[in-house]
């Protein structure tokens, strides 16, 4: 089969290689991948890939071999999955606890855009509690996570202010019901909750806009610049603010994937897909994703799905 493997080159981060099909573990199903969605964090890992690194965590396709232990979906079932690695290939071995069955109303393109970003959004909102009535600030909002958080939080009754670099990148967020600003300094606080994903100078600016007793959840560093906090500046800011570190990871992912699929099928969640292309264009797409030239998610199609 064909698989995309890292090259270590910034301009062409992946290339095709002919490799054997993966051999699933007893609790894994073999999935014929029809679509996959890279994440921006994966583009950073590709800059200095470790030995044996096989990217690919968000896939949709067809089960062609059931799990040997008898669990999981049957052969011929359409699924979305979140494997730990190896999804940018014609076939992927996916733990059955990280699969969800796709109904007829959810196509593979939208399904592939769900896993990492959608699971992160669900778990972020669970971490802050019931969104209804909360004033929420979301930085780095124009990526996949930001779109899901905005749609879910607004639908649940939150008042969301979304920070994006440009009006173009914020247009869809405004349609979803967010107030869009183009810098943290422009956001009008105080906020009950700040969801901060850019790091660098944005984090202390956002922290200063939290209400006394509020919470800042730090879940990314998209700027790739470490944040610096001044203790004495904090003394002059809001009191009793909680700063929480958040990382989405922790299997099983299947129940959250099933929730996301159900919301899409019911028309209550709409993946923002900025590009759909053949996987032959993966290298170019990864560069554009890394350089923030794609709004929302990018989805690549393999084989007959193209």
Automatic annotation (TrEMBL):
InterPro entries: ADH-like_C, ADH-like_N, ER, GroES-like_sf, NAD(P)-bd_dom_sf. Transmembrane segments: none annotated. The keyword Oxidoreductase applies. Residues 10-300 form the Enoyl reductase (ER) domain. SMART domains: PKS_ER. It comes from the Bacteria. Keywords: NADP, Oxidoreductase. This is Zinc-binding dehydrogenase.
């Amino acid at each position: 089969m064909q698989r995309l493997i890292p090259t270590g080159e910034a301009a062409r981060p992946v290339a095709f290689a002919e490799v054997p099909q993966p051999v699933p573990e007893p609790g894994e199903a073999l999935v014929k991948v029809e679509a996959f969605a890279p994440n921006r964090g994966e583009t950073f890992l590709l800059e200095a890939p470790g030995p044996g690194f096989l990217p690919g965590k968000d896939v949709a396709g067809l089960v062609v071999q059931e799990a040997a232990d008898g669990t999981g979906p049957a052969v011929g079932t359409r699924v979305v999955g979140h494997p730990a690695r190896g999804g940018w290939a014609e076939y992927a071995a996916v733990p059955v606890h990280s699969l969800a069955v796709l109904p007829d109303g959810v196509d593979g393109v939208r399904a592939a855009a769900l896993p990492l970003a959608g699971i992160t959004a669900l778990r972020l909102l669970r971490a802050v509690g019931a969104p209804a009535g909360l004033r929420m600030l979301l930085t780095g909002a124009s990526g996949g996570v930001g779109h899901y958080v905005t749609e879910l939080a607004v639908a649940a009754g939150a008042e969301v202010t979304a920070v994006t670099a440009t009006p173009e990148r914020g247009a869809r967020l405004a349609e979803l019901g967010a107030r869009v600003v183009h810098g943290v300094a422009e956001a009008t606080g105080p906020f009950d909750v700040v969801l901060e994903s850019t790091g660098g100078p944005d984090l202390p600016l956002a922290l200063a806009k939290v209400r006394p007793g509020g919470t800042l959840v730090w879940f990314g560093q998209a700027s790739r610049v470490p944040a610096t906090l001044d203790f004495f500046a904090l003394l002059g800011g809001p009191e009793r603010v909680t700063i929480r570190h958040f990382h989405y990871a922790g299997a099983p992912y299947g129940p959250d994937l099933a929730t996301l699929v159900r919301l899409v099928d019911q028309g209550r969640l709409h993946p923002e897909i900025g590009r759909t292309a053949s996987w032959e264009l993966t290298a170019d797409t990864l560069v554009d994703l890394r350089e923030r030239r794609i709004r929302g998610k990018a989805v690549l199609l393999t084989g007959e799905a193209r």
